[in-house]
């Protein structure tokens, strides 16, 4: 009887091992090369630290349960680490990125390979530098698809798009932050907000480079939004288009329809957008949400914009894209912020 029990136990262990092998995710390898590059925004040019010469940086595409090894080559002038924002990293804190908390900084002229273990995350997250304010330009999106063979808990979209909200400073923000920390001054306010690194039509010297999202009529798109702005909540709306919120921070939500979103710093959001309006051009507009009106009165109230542009040959009824005047909340609309937050429910 004892031999039979031992034999059955061995069979169970063997089957369990085979099951683990079948559900184990794939392994991916990437190189992140950090170096300084010149960018021209708001009528001036400055050098900024970026990854692989792009802003935002490269997107990491994985499936749920995958593992990624990222070899970070620091060829810039600042010591850095890379943090995988929202990734749980089970039993792997030494690759999580907080400088001098879980790992040492990667010094200029050196490299270090970080292991990123995805467990139950599914949706959109992001990565960013975790040293001083280098994350202002060292950041990018992470797209986590369902496990192979599985689907979304909502109808599969026809295509998808990533919009990264960011901040732009016309000076070296890291030097200013160091000075402010020494003197106790307020941390600097950016000169503009950006969508995929572009300030948009309402900022100086920017309308030729405004980001454009090309869409086809009658399709449903999964819009992945990352708020990489330095410490600011924002409202965002698309003129004449409803937004169906389906996920936030790599977790699914009970879907709900809204005309705008409010997204906090460091948050990500997954949104279904159906292109069911007349062909044309529509502004995607965002503005900061302020609860302190005293601060608000001193802030530059310029909206950051991108353009949703229907494909095809057509004559535009107006020169400028439609703007979400009636759906984008004002800067201090506290009730709009609370109303949106109250609709968020886990699936």
UniProtKB/TrEMBL annotation:
It is found in: Secreted, Extracellular space, Apoplast. SUPFAM superfamilies: Cupredoxins. Coiled coil: none annotated. Its EC number is 1.10.3.2. Residues 1-25 form the signal peptide. Belongs to the multicopper oxidase family. This is laccase.
């Amino acid at each position: 009887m004892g031999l039979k029990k031992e034999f059955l136990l061995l069979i169970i262990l063997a089957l369990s091992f085979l099951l683990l092998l079948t559900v184990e995710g794939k392994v991916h390898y990437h190189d992140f090369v950090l170096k300084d590059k010149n960018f021209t925004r708001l009528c001036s040019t400055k050098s900024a630290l970026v990854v692989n010469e792009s802003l935002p940086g490269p997107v990491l595409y994985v499936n749920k349960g995958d593992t990624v090894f990222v070899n970070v080559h620091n060829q810039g002038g600042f010591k850095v680490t890379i943090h995988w924002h929202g990734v749980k990293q089970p039993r792997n804190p030494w690759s999580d990125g907080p400088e001098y908390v879980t790992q040492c900084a990667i010094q200029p002229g050196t490299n270090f390979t970080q292991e990123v273990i995805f467990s139950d995350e599914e949706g959109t997250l992001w990565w960013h530098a975790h040293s001083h304010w280098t994350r202002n330009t060292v950041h990018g999106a992470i797209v986590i698809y369902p496990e192979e063979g599985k689907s979304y808990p909502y109808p599969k979209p026809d295509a998808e798009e990533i919009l990264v909200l960011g901040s732009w400073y016309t000076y070296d923000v890291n030097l200013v932050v160091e000075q402010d920390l020494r003197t106790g001054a307020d941390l600097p306010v950016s000169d503009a907000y950006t969508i995929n690194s572009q300030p948009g039509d309402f900022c100086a010297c920017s309308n030729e480079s405004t980001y454009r999202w090309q869409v086809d009529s009658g399709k449903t798109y999964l819009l992945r939004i990352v708020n990489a702005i330095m410490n600011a909540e924002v409202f965002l709306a698309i003129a004449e288009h409803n937004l169906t919120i389906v996920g936030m921070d790599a977790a699914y939500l009970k879907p709900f329809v809204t005309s705008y979103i409010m997204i906090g710093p460091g948050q990500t959001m997954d949104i279904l957008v159906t292109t069911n309006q007349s062909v044309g051009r529509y502004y995607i507009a965002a503005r900061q949400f302020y609860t302190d009106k005293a601060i608000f009165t001193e802030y530059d109230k310029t909206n950051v914009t991108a353009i949703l542009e229907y494909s095809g040959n057509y004559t535009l009824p107006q020169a400028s894209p439609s703007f979400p005047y009636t759906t984008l909340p004002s800067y201090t609309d506290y009730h709009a912020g609370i109303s949106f937050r109250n609709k968020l429910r886990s699936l």
